[in-house]
C-alpha cells in the first residue's frame, strides 16, 4: 500500500481518479450468452489520469506498483459525442 500511495502522490494534479478495485465476480455478456469464465484478462480495477498524450499516460502507468502483480492496460477516454 505504501508503494501505491507513493505512486499516486507522484502523479499530482494529473490524477483524476486514484482508483477503484473491481469485484472478482465479473461476467462476460455476448450474443452467444453470459459467461463467468473471463480468463486471464479480467479487469481488476482502474485509475484515471490526465495526460498530454498516450505516451505520457503509458509512462505514468509504467511506474505503477500494480506491475509487480500483473499487467496494466492504458486507453483513452472517448469524448462525449
Explain this structure.
The structure is a single chain. By secondary structure, the chain is an alpha+beta fold. It has one domain (2-68). It is built from two helices and four strands. It has helices spanning 2-11, 54-61, and strands at residues 15-21, 28-30, 33-35, 45-49. The strands form two sheets. Strands 1-4 form a two-stranded antiparallel sheet. Strand 2 and strand 3 (33-35) form a beta hairpin. The longest helix has 10 residues, at 2-11.
Task: Write a brief caption for the model.
With 81 residues, the protein is of the alpha+beta class. It has helices at residues 2-11, 54-61, and strands at 15-21, 28-30, 33-35, 45-49. It has one domain (2-68).
The rounded Rg comes to 15 Å
Q: Main sheet: which strands, in order across?
A: 1-4
Largest sheet: 2 strands, antiparallel
Outline, from the CA principal axes?
A: globular
Beta strand % = 15-25%
What does the average pLDDT come to? 88
Number of domains: 1
Name the features:
single chain, 81 residues, alpha+beta, two-stranded antiparallel sheet, 22% helix
Task: Explain the layout of strands and helices.
Layout: H1 2-11, E1 15-21, E2 28-30, E3 33-35, E4 45-49, H2 54-61
Antiparallel strand pairs: 1-4, 2-3
Amino acid at each position: 500500500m505504501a508503494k501505491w500511495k507513493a505512486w499516486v502522490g507522484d502523479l499530482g494534479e494529473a490524477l483524476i481518479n486514484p482508483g477503484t478495485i473491481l469485484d472478482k465476480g465479473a461476467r462476460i455478456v455476448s450474443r452467444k450468452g453470459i459467461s463467468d469464465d473471463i480468463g486471464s484478462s479480467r479487469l481488476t480495477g482502474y485509475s484515471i489520469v490526465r495526460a498530454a498524450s498516450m505516451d505520457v499516460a503509458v509512462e505514468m502507468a509504467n511506474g505503477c506498483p500494480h506491475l509487480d502483480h500483473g499487467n496494466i492496460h492504458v486507453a483513452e477516454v472517448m469524448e462525449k459525442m
